[in-house]
């Protein structure tokens, strides 16, 4: 399976898993010049930006460890663009989560992964 296909599949699995946890999917693959927001969801009154990371193996720290400071900065800039283009979004509670998935089927949900960054 190609990398893009694996990524799309992981995003679909993460969205379905988060829906079971009570979140509502609003948008997928929101692109800006700074990067892409994988999932935009609602958790009650909170607007949630979700970064989905998949790693087939846990070498080098696994999927969660793949959210580097550079990736985090790009995601924060992409979220800023989203908020600027959706005026009502800025008035809501905001959160950035990470869903880390492994080839063994493990899912790690890290709510508010970038605490204080939004």
Write a structural description.
By secondary structure, this protein is an alpha+beta fold. The chain has one domain (3-110): Trna Endonuclease, Chain: A, domain 1 (3-Layer(aba) Sandwich), CATH 3.40.1350. Helix content is 33%, strand content 36%. It has three helices and five strands. It has helices spanning 3-20, 62-65, 69-85; strands at residues 24-32, 35-43, 46-55, 93-102, 107-110. A five-stranded mixed sheet has the order 1-2-3-4-5, sandwiched between helices. A hairpin with a 4-residue loop joins strand 4 (93-102) and strand 5 (107-110). The longest helix has 18 residues, at 3-20. The model has no long low-confidence stretch (mean pLDDT 85).
Are there runs of 5+ residues with pLDDT below 50, and where?
Answer: none
Structural class: alpha+beta
The total beta strand count reads: 5
- Main β sheet profile: 5 strands, mixed
Named CATH architecture: 3-Layer(aba) Sandwich
Indicate the proportion of strand residues: 35-45%
Order of helices and strands: HEEEHHEE
Give the averaged pLDDT, no decimals.
85
The outline comes out as: globular
Query: Which percent bin holds the helix content?
Result: 25-40%
Q: What gyration radius follows from the Cα positions, in whole Å? A: 14 Å
**Intertermini distance:** 35 Å
Secondary structure tally, helices: 3
Largest beta sheet: strand ordering: 1-2-3-4-5
What's the domain count? 1
Provide the CATH topology: Trna Endonuclease, Chain: A, domain 1
CATH class: Alpha Beta
């Amino acid at each position: 399976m190609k990398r893009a296909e694996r990524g799309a599949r992981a995003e679909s699995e993460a969205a379905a898993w988060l829906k079971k946890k009570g979140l509502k999917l609003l948008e997928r693959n929101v692109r800006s010049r700074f990067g892409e927001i994988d999932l935009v969801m609602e958790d009650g009154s909170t607007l949630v930006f979700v970064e989905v990371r998949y790693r087939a193996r846990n070498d080098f720290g696994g999927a969660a460890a793949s959210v580097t400071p550079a990736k985090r900065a790009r995601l924060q800039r992409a979220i800023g663009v989203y908020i600027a283009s959706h005026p009502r979004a800025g008035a809501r509670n905001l959160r950035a989560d990470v869903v880390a998935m492994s080839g063994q089927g493990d899912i790690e949900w890290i709510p508010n992964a970038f605490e204080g960054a939004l």
